Amino acid sequence: MPYDLDNPMSGVVDCPKCRHSMTYLRHHNAVARNEGYLLDDGTDRNYFTYLLWGWEGVVLKLIYRNIIEPLGSKFFGKRRQDRYARLLRDYPSSLICTHCQYILRRK
Q: What band does 60 get if pLDDT is binned at 50, 70 and 90?
């Protein structure tokens, strides 16, 4: 088992799926995350969509990128945090891989 010298917590193991270091789920879930706010630099303008559907495609993309995607991200992020909190109630020493999101349940 290789040691992660940057994160020397006792009892932390490697992920069985991807072999990255796992961290405690309670520390991971305690970090305040605002998942509904997305960064958009505007570099992925698709001119093919504009030529194919005209203004309707641009309006649909605008509605999706500025309304539906942030609300969906916020909703599913909140559900994920609630699921982690329920899991922590039953398994307080659980570990999570921050690379592949694999959860190792430990009492």
A: confident
